[in-house]
Amino acid sequence: MILSLACALPAFASVSVITPANNSTVGTSVQFVANSSTTCSRGVASTGVYVDNSLDYVTGGNSLNTAISLTPGTHYIVVQEWDYCGGATTTPLNLTATAGATVTVASPVNGSTVGTPETFVASATSSCAKGVAAMGVYVNNSLMYQAPGSTLKAAIPLSAGKQTAVVQEWDYCGGSTTTPVSVTVAGTTIANVQAAPGWNQWGELPPIYGICSAPCAGVNWGMAQHQTNISTSGNSTSFYVGGTTPFADALFSNPVIGQGNQQGLTDSAHTLLPAIHNFIYDTDVYVSDLAVTQNLEFDINWYGNGQGLEWGTQCDHLGDGVWDLWNNVEAAWFPTNIPCQLNDGAWNHVTLQVQREANNMLLYQSITVNGVVHPVNVTVAPFAVPAGWWGMTINFQPDGDYAMHGYSTYLDRTNFTYW
Q1: β 88-97/25-26 pair status
Q2: Considering the chain, what is the average pLDDT of its residues?
Q3: Domain shared by 112 and 220, yes or no
Q4: pTM score, two decimals?
Q5: Least CB-packed of 78, 218, 274, 362 within 10 Å?
Q6: How far is residue 48's CA from residue 374's CA, in Å, rounded to a whole number?
Q7: In total, how many domains does the chain have?
Q8: Who contacts 2 (Cβ-Cβ below 8 Å, separation ≥6)?
């Protein structure tokens, strides 16, 4: 009897509708994005949308992302999941469709192949007398960018492969309209490098700043992976620097390709490294105490065939106050005119895009901070390295201030993309 009663218990389930919002005013083409879950051990079988009690769309699995046409007027919508245990759960919506709202996406073109980050350019109109309040971009059901007004221009980091984006407007009357865009992103992404094995770490002391292994008198450092308290994904890494020697640094480096790689990308046949030319360092950065953060450095390094390319980029917060670039021939930093403005005690999003040109010149393409794209377009020559060096690394380096106040910086969702 106990067994039969247990089998008869229903599976608990939920349907979460991400967009559109209940009781909102929408256009005549509405993007429906929803996720569902169930305690049924076999999972969700399908998810669908009813419009005015008629099934309009159904798809297999526990997620739904589709555009549905509505006639002008009021509509009763039901988003429903069906599980493999015979259960079903619904979430109702009341929508008002008007013909006066539009979202026009100028870039990227639907169905096109793009790089990353990709610049989204769009505009919106609304029949709401007060106008459009804000616009945003969802990628694979996650809101990546939002800004006030009826126009949008933002560089959005994308993972390699096929991606589904939705550009949405919200008006001052509570309405919303969407336009979907599907793209294929070139490249291969090594995801969550902050949590990957293989990190090396050293101290650096002025004035030469050569690396030294612990113990290194005058500077202390450390890293702790798999942090959950301060995190955007639940798997961040903290990087600490402190000590007694003013302006000492801590260098953390992961060999993402080639020698020392611990993720199966040793490139032992020496075929991958010569074939790739485009690189993106994309990461969330938590600044714990901006007042003592001298600068934060993010590097991409390429070594092969006797040549070295070091794309060094640092936010020189307490120095010149701008983003600096590294000249690896002269071994010196030079400033840009891009202000280094990071949010204190909060997460920031930093994306660096660079290129190895056909003649091995280094091209700094852009720096994107918290959704704002700063074109760079600066070229630097390579330098000579020992013939046996082969591979790529990405580095993160927090620098100490005049009194070496100790502080930690966190990285999360640190992705390296190449093609």
Answers
A1: parallel
A2: 91
A3: no
A4: 0.65
A5: 274
A6: 42
A7: 3
A8: none
